[in-house]
Amino acid sequence: QFDIPSMPAESKGQAIREYLAASARYLLENPFYVTGDLQLEKTERTRIAALMDTSGVPDTIVLRFGVMLERAEGKVWPTTIPLMAKPNDNEFDMGMASTVNLGDPVALLHTSKDRLWCYVQTENFTCWIPSSAVAFGKLATLRELADRSMPLVAVGDKVPVYGNPDDPAAIGYLNMGSYLPIRSIGNAFCEVLVPGRGTGGDLVVKRGYVRRGSDVSVGFLPFTIRNVYDRLFILYGSRYGWGGMYDSRDCSAYVMDVFRCFNIRLPRNSQSQGKVGTRII
């Protein structure tokens, strides 16, 4: 688990360089299918690996801190091309790491050679995300947007956030367990702080609005068995999405999102999740 706002200003690059190099080798040495029994060509795998620019990771990484402007797929490799391990295995894109949600803080570890992808540390995993989905700026701005002292928490699935109370279309949505700091509470809307990109491209704080009638909670929910059951069954019947495919969630993300409603931050994978609790059965 990483508390992004409290991370040191610098990080050692060797471990990141070695991890990315191993990931690039795996991509180059193994066949992947993009649809049906059609394999991804070696030249394309070589191009993706080159984009990772592993030799460009410095020995000392000077971290930049940012906040997600939208929900995005976190990828193992910097590509939107689906990469299946077996023919016709379209439910399992091996390039999916997990999703990163609107408002999530991240630390920049590396950038792809074409600058279109950022390799980031989230609170519990690393992944490639599109550069357009995140804004980086001052640490003080990130801390303001990551403040949990008075959060508006999404306790349902896909809660819309509006740029103006009168806007018919949302500027984004909060996934279950995500939150935004509250600025004020009205009868119809809560005014919240949302991340944005300023004129110079840096991270700025903007205002957003969430309807009071949405499935939200002022503050994190009390951790009770009844509340846990309620959150679990809100997602009952939702489509399974390996690593966040189809804008959904897989089994461990399901557990992780539910417990985020109570400000309990669990690891990303089920094996690690099983080690952090107290055995009661």
Using brief descriptors, characterize the structure shown.
single chain; 281 residues; alpha+beta; five-stranded antiparallel beta sheet; 6 helices; 18 strands; globular
Write the SSE topology.
Blueprint lengths: L9 E3 L1 H16 L3 E3 L2 E2 L2 H10 L8 E3 L1 E5 L3 E4 L20 E5 L4 E7 L5 E5 L4 E5 L3 E4 L1 H7 L5 E4 L4 E3 L10 E3 L4 E7 L3 E9 L5 E9 L4 E3 L6 H10 L16 H10 L9 H7 L5
Antiparallel strand pairs: 1-4, 2-3, 5-8, 5-11, 6-7, 8-9, 9-10, 12-15, 12-18, 13-14, 15-16, 16-17
Helix pairs in contact: 1-2
**What is the topology, as strand order, of the major beta sheet?**
10-9-8-5-11
* DSSP strand content: 25-35%
Number of strands: 18
- Please tell me what the overall shape is: globular
> Uncertain spans, ≥5 residues at pLDDT below 50?
none
Coarse structural class: alpha+beta
Helix content: 10-25%
Provide mean pLDDT, rounded.
95
Report on the structure:
Helix content is 21%, strand content 30%. α1 runs antiparallel to α2. The protein has 6 helices and 18 strands. It has a 5-stranded antiparallel beta sheet with strand order 10-9-8-5-11, covered by helices on one side. It has 281 residues and is of the alpha+beta class.
Give a concise summary:
By secondary structure, the chain is of the alpha+beta class.
